[in-house]
Design a protein that fits this description.
about 450 residues, alpha/beta, six-stranded mixed sheet, five-stranded mixed sheet, 10 helices, 17 strands, elongated
């Protein structure tokens, strides 16, 4: 009887070991996605379970190798979606005795790699992420870094939220937020670039992720006068709808939606990868803090003014969720030297608004209203060295007894030019009206 119990005990241990080995070897590469961007290339391996891996680089030729341990036999890897010039080929081999899948990425050039895993979040399961960083590529408008000249363009950085591995919020019909905000950003950029004295810079130009801190860095490198981040809102219930504009709060968010936005931003950081730490190496701590506080105060005031103008224009073409700028502590708003606003164009979680946001007509109306609000803001408060400031110096406030022809004669311009420059339908003007004088 005692021997029988020992046999049962050993059989139970063997069974547990066998089950454990089967479970441990249950990982599998389900799909591969490649996300190219101007500054790096991201390769994402979607896995059935959390990865147990090691990785290393090889040269002559350039390769990057990933060993996935405890991986069940897989005849071939799934075809990768997307492509990048850096990734020439992805191949694999399998070693049955130690249950290791070796994945080899053939590279077109030498590139450093950052490898990390991500737990299930949003629409994705377990992932192994490889970020390749090659030589720094030129950003689209490098001439913006040059010394500014009087009469310069006002530069507006437009940030389409989320992107790549981070879809943002997902609507009831399956619409990804990232796929709505990029075309709106492009439409806004086109309107800005068609306006003399204004220039747009897109923070991301395609479907790839840009880390939250990097978004403000790009705006700073472009010497932007304002950063506009475009998003689509979401809530736990389908009822809320309408556009809103957010500015920085140094305290907690002013509403439940704001607190959800802050939570969603942390979710985006997780989807995007590892965080970054901003260090201040300035020795003159107190002087630096004073300058920083003054700069931040100026940025917050300017951002609030811009947000108010954008809200007023958005209210002409769509419902507003809030008629005043809302406040939240979001990373994309925290730049102390660049006024920044975040525009939520509507609630993607509302079925009717989701369908409306998908239409090109509504996207164009949203872009047009944002442009009008931004143009109005900079006409009222232009940077001192900008073309808008020069034009503002050529303004005339109508006084009693003055006519359009009299004002035109005073500034030596034609009545027709004065009429067109101020978008007047006739020759009627009113006392106190401000007319812009054409060059």
């Amino acid at each position: 009887m005692k021997n029988d119990k020992k046999k049962v005990h050993w059989l139970w241990l063997l069974l547990c070991c066998w089950a454990g080995s089967v479970w441990a070897a249950s990982n599998e590469v389900q799909s591969i996605r490649i996300w190219p961007s101007p500054e790096n290339t991201r390769v994402v391996f979607d896995l059935a379970a959390a990865p147990d891996q090691r990785s290393f680089a090889l040269e002559n030729p350039h390769r990057f190798v990933i060993d996935l341990r405890q991986h069940k036999a897989q005849s071939r890897l799934p075809a990768a979606s997307g492509d990048a010039s850096l990734i020439q080929n992805i191949r694999s081999s399998y070693t049955a005795n130690n249950q290791t899948l070796r994945i080899v990425l053939d590279l077109s050039e030498k590139a450093s790699a950052n490898v990390f895993s991500l737990p299930p979040t949003g629409p994705y399961g377990h992932r192994l992420v490889v970020d390749f960083k090659g030589e720094q590529r030129e950003l689209p408008v490098a001439q913006a870094r040059a010394q500014r000249q009087p009469g310069r363009d006002i530069i507006i950085a437009i940030d389409a939220g989320h992107g790549g591995e981070d879809p943002g919020s997902i609507g009831p019909a399956g619409t990804f937020e990232k796929n709505l905000v990029l075309p709106i950003a492009r439409r806004l950029a086109e309107l800005i670039n068609n306006e003399p004295g204004m220039k747009a810079v897109l923070v991301r130009t395609g479907d790839y992720f840009v880390h939250l801190n990097r978004r403000t860095d790009i705006a700073r490198e472009m010497q932007a006068d304002l950063l506009v981040s475009i998003h689509a809102d979401a809530f736990t219930s389908p009822q809320p709808r309408g556009a809103a504009v957010w500015v920085l709060s140094l305290r907690r968010a002013t509403s439940e939606v704001g607190r959800m936005l802050e939570q969603k931003e942390r979710h985006s950081e997780l989807l995007g990868g590892v965080g970054e730490i901003i260090r201040d190496s300035t020795q003159e701590r107190y002087l630096a803090q004073t300058v920083l506080d003054l700069s931040m105060n100026h940025s917050m005031v300017s951002a609030h003014q811009a947000a108010t103008h954008v809200l007023a224009e958005l209210g002409q073409i769509t419902r507003l969720h809030r008629r005043e700028p809302q406040a939240a502590s979001l990373a994309v708003l925290r730049s102390p030297d660049i006024p920044s606003i975040l525009v939520e164009v509507g609630f993607i979680s509302n079925p009717q608004e989701e369908q409306q946001l998908r239409t090109a007509q509504h996207q164009q109306r949203l872009a047009q209203s944002m442009f009008q609000g931004l143009r109005r803001h900079f006409r009222e408060s232009p940077p001192a060295d900008s073309l808008f400031a020069q034009h503002r110096s050529r303004e005339h406030r109508v006084e009693r007894g003055e006519s359009l022809s009299l004002v035109a004669q005073r500034y030596n311009v034609s009545v027709e030019a004065l009429r067109q420059h101020n978008q007047l339908n006739g020759d009627t003007i009113r006392i106190g009206q401000v007319l812009r004088i054409p060059d």
